[in-house]
Amino acid sequence: MPAPVLDPDSGLTASDADLQGGSAWTLFLVWSRPNWRQNSGKDAEPATLLSWGGAPVLQAESQGGGNRLLLFPGSGAEVVLTSGLARRHTHSLILRNRPGVGIDVWLDDNRLVSAGTNPLVSPSGALPLILLHDTTAGGGAQCWFHETAIWTRNLADQEIGTVLTRAGRWARGSRRGICLLVNGQSNAINFSLND
Fold first, then answer.
1. What pTM does this model have?
2. Beta-carbon count within 10 A of 19 CB
3. What is the mean pLDDT of the chain?
């Protein structure tokens, strides 16, 4: 997959991906939620952490202390992954879709869903994968992106275990401190401060 592209108006575009229920794929994401959305004009709306072709795949509740993390929100296959998604924490997520079986989900080190329904379909196959943004004005999730990977196959359980072990390099759980590194052109700090 090419390197993700950060745009302040449309989020972090990872590239086109095929996340349909009938396709084999595995997705890994690590992010931090420093706070609930603030001064976005959409503070009461959920923060979209992952969208595919404009459809939300993963959302976190925001305003008023909402702490649910939702998979396939608003669809007939919506799943509440947790009701305790605290702010100031870092999380890792693995989604594995097995055609004919369903989707498996790991949040941090815990398997929460086995063979769940994946309602995603697209007549054109691959669609843009957007991280931490709903692609509308003011639609940023106001979270910090750490890492993502996509495989165009199902990782075996043993491989999932390896990915979870490697995810341990991130201080998941309660945030104990903040360290920011901005690397890039002279205007790179502008994107960081504005986003």
1. 0.84
2. 23
3. 84
